[in-house]
Design goal:
Order of helices and strands: EHEEHEHHEHEEHEEEEEHEEHHEEE
Low-confidence stretches: none
Largest sheet: 9 strands, antiparallel
Bound molecules: adenosine monophosphate
Mean pLDDT: 95
CATH superfamily of the largest domain: ATP-grasp fold, B domain
Distance between the termini: 40 Å
Oligomer: single chain
Radius of gyration: 20 Å
Helix content: 10-25%
Number of strands: 17
CATH architecture of the largest domain: 2-Layer Sandwich
Number of helices: 9
CATH class of the largest domain: Alpha Beta
Structural class: alpha+beta
Shape: globular
Number of domains: 3
Length: 356
């Protein structure tokens, strides 16, 4: 169990690391960031900053030596260079290996009894044509690696679209388009002793492949599918002997929950937990990594909406603070770009306070 004043290293320097570092600070821990980009919004609220490339094994080793515990906030950290220090990292990097390859991830989930979208591995243009014919169109071609927030994805409306796509030169998968009623994620935390707790699932709406908002309570179709979705997420966590926060994204369909993808980390669809749950995803991740007892994950509100601030300057964002129970989180990013997450706003409706 980490003692107050202990140091937690975070691989990755984005907003998830920033919010983790803020929770770590609350518990009296120091944080150290490791990220290749000089402009790290997590480093701005942390102590030391190792600004080194992901393949710099000497720097990674020095970083780990400086920390009492190490975790990550970015799921595309290359796994190879972590091998010499893998046993010092929580969760174990085997979770990264599974989540970084969409094909391995879907096969892993099927072995555990989960249902992903119909898919096929694509290495050649001929395979894409065959898959589009066998699985049908519309569908989505996705690179196996390095995709996030809708990047590395192409919508294939017809076999003719597939014909037009000749330039693909990285391994990919083709997925049949899922006719879903709603999207949701199961976010759980697993402690070092194997205890699992779940937050309530928000209903997620994406725009251009990027999460736009998450709302609680979720619609009835989602609530009705939580049991099998949670069971699958728990089986994933157990099989990986996972410690920390794990997210699994699902489509709610007429045939039950269809697994979309897992994120072995805290997740954008769980940002509402900072103000809307007894213990946030960030605090519970830090608690799990530090070997501390997990906090209660219960929702404390009747209604929650989390809106992302995407792709635009955040200069007017604080104006909404005049509204009741409204909370603004700005990530301190300098440049707004298309699709870039600059911050989020959480609006809560709670039961009346006893002092009202
Ligand atoms: P991903 O990066 O794979 O999570 O995709 C981002 C978003 O694109 C998802 O949350 C869905 O809204 C949409 N999407 C991805 N794959 C599919 C699919 N096979 N069928 C329908 N919608 C999809």
């Amino acid at each position: 169990m980490l003692k107050p004043g202990g140091t937690i290293g975070i691989l990755g320097g984005g907003q998830l690391g920033r919010m983790m570092a803020m929770s770590a600070a609350q518990l009296g821990f120091q944080t150290v960031i490791y990220a290749p980009e000089r402009d790290s919004v997590a480093a701005k609220v942390s102590g030391d900053f190792f600004c080194n490339t992901w393949d710099d094994t000497a720097a990674l080793s020095a970083f780990v030596q400086q920390c009492d515990a190490v975790t990550w906030e970015f799921e595309n950290v290359p796994v190879g260079p972590l091998a010499p220090v893998a046993d010092r990292i929580t969760p174990h990097p085997r979770a990264l290996e599974t989540a970084q390859d969409r094909l391995a991830e879907k096969q892993f989930v099927e072995e555990l009894g989960g249902t992903p979208a119909a898919y096929a591995a694509i290495d050649t243009h001929e395979e894409l044509m065959r898959a589009a014919e066998r699985i049908g169109t519309p569908g989505i071609l996705k690179t196996r690696r390095d995709g996030y927030d809708g990047k590395g994805q192409w919508r294939i409306g017809s076999v003719r679209d597939a014909e037009g796509l000749r330039a693909l030169d990285v391994p990919a998968i083709y997925e049949g388009f899922v006719e879903f009623s709603a999207e949701f994620s199961v976010i759980l935390v697993r402690g070092k002793d194997g205890e699992i707790r779940y937050w309530d699932s928000a209903e997620n709406v994406h725009e251009n492949g990027v999460l736009a908002h998450s709302t609680l309570p979720a619609s009835d179709i989602i609530i009705a599918q939580l049991k099998p979705a949670r069971a699958l997420a728990a089986a994933i966590a157990q099989r990986l002997d996972y410690v920390g926060v794990l997210t699994c994204e699902f489509f709610a369909t007429a045939n039950g929950p269809v697994f979309n993808e897992m994120a072995p980390r805290v997740h954008n669809s769980g940002h509402w937990t900072i103000e809307g749950a007894v213990t946030s995803q960030f605090e519970n991740h830090i608690r799990a990594v530090a070997g501390l007892p997990l906090g209660d994950t219960a929702t404390t509100a009747q209604h929650v909406v989390m809106n992302n601030i995407v792709g635009k300057a955040a200069s007017n964002a604080l104006e909404v603070l005049g509204q009741p129970d409204t909370h603004v989180h700005l990530y301190g990013k300098k440049q707004a770009r298309d699709g870039r997450k600059m911050g989020h706003v959480t609006q809560i409706v709670r039961p009346a306070s006893s002092n009202a």
